[in-house]
Design a protein that fits this description.
241 residues, alpha/beta, Arc Repressor Mutant, subunit A, Nucleotidyltransferase, domain 5, 3 domains, five-stranded mixed β-sheet, two-stranded antiparallel ribbon, Tc3 transposase DNA binding domain-containing protein, RNaseH_sf
């Protein structure tokens, strides 16, 4: 409920006169057509009436700024800190965060972590699974391996964003290259885990063969003897001749 118009100088003078004759706040309210609470507030502090309350802070991000903030959060998913700087909003970053948290259709959630699969990739995976279900492959005899790159400029799969509940969730595709990183190679099977190899520099077919010779074959021979089945993905360095 909003407050009424401020008391004019004439009305304030009338209130002071009525109070000199000991009229009650209710009676003055009837005579002047103003609320009893307004008259009481003025009489308690006539000199301070109309001055701003130093303990009451105005809302900085309101109206158009608040709508712009919410709209951009819905569109980009950017953090409150980023939006606050990009939009040049006044007030604190915490104020912008509170405005976004108060919005009923926005939630700060983690992006879905998934590899960037094309239609051909999905079909190949389905065909592979169907084939091995039909043939009854003995998985205990297979050694699996892969490389993994850890990005030093921030994790791929743990980025949060402002999600608009009226829209589909965002998907964050994992990166294959780019940014400061460290790459490792490892293998596993029903027999256990291989030693982890830390790979240096850009990997090519020659370096990949060295990795297999130094890490895969010792693991395979120790657990399966001279012959074993080894599985790898279709990366270019795996297929090079």
């Amino acid at each position: 409920m909003g407050s009424g118009p401020r008391l004019s100088i004439e009305v304030r003078a009338a209130i002071r006169s009525f109070r000199k004759f000991n009229l009650s706040y209710r009676r003055i309210s009837v005579e002047l057509g103003r609320s009893k609470d307004t008259i009481r507030a003025y009489c308690k502090d006539p000199d301070g009436y109309g001055r701003p309350n130093p303990g009451q802070k105005p809302r900085i991000v309101v109206g158009r700024d608040e709508r712009t903030l919410v709209r951009n959060a819905s569109k980009t998913g950017a953090s409150a800190r980023s939006l606050h700087a990009t939009l040049g909003l006044q007030g604190s970053i915490r104020t912008s965060q509170r405005r976004l948290q108060a919005c009923k259709h926005l939630r700060y959630i983690k992006r879905t972590h998934t590899p960037c699969l094309k239609t051909a990739h999905k079909k190949a995976r389905l065909d592979y699974a169907t084939k091995n279900l039909r043939e009854g492959t003995n998985w205990t005899e297979i050694i699996w391996s892969d490389e993994k790159k850890f990005n030093l400029d921030g994790p791929d799969g743990f980025k949060y964003y402002w999600h608009d509940l009226r829209k589909e969730k965002d998907t964050f595709f994992t990166r294959a290259t780019g940014g400061a990183s460290v790459m490792v190679w490892g293998a596993f099977s029903s027999a256990g885990l291989s030693e982890l190899a830390f790979l240096e520099g850009t990997q090519n077919a020659e370096k990949y063969i060295d990795t297999l010779g130094n890490y895969l074959f010792p693991f395979g021979h120790a657990n399966y003897g001279p012959t074993f089945t080894f599985m790898q993905d279709g990366a270019s360095i795996h297929r090079a001749k």
